[in-house]
Specification:
With 223 residues, the protein is α/β, with parallel strands linked by helices. Helix content is 18%, strand content 25%. Strand 3, helix 2 and strand 4 (80-83) form a beta-alpha-beta unit.
Length: 223
Amino acid sequence: MIAVVRFGGSNCDRDAVRALEAVGLDAEIVWHEDGLPADADGVVLPGGFSYGDYLRAGAMAARSPIMDDVRDAANDGVPVLGVCNGAQIGCEAGLTPGAFTTNASARFQCEHVHLRVENAETPWTRAYEEGDVVEFPIAHGEGRFEIPDAELAELENDDRVLFRYCDAEGNITEKANPNGSTGNVAGIVGESATVAVMMPHPERAALPLLGGTDGQGVLEGFA
């Protein structure tokens, strides 16, 4: 069972459950105050606006007691995926390096973007080929990935960058970067490849009725 953690203000939890079920996985919403079920085979930290993004996006949810359970599960090899607000929570909780800050535009960005697969050897990207271009939606006001250059170089040397924002042909350009993220980075893995955070929404690109299924490959990482 994949546990989709709901915090006050989460709004993509049902989307995540529906998308996971579409790829043949059993998923349930777990209220953060109830703790992580012992039988959880995976964890999704979904998108939304946990605690109204007070202080900064993800900061309060990252300090919820359930995140101790999530960290322990991640250390035991349980796959963990943070999406959008869940990515902010994951970074704030120390599951991955870096931080997500206010978009360079200082505006909420809601649009479809192209991503280039940078490493196809992780659970989250093995459904793709390196260099593939996929299309996912974004919906965030604090999606700008910030990390010191030296730490970014370490991520790159360790092949821990999953996706980069690109144009439809796969070119990594400033114009294709919707939020000003360092190095056009859209998703990374932690010290273990079973832990990932990403700003674009794979669960919103996993059903034909939503206009595309490019995101199914990410969710299949739980299998």
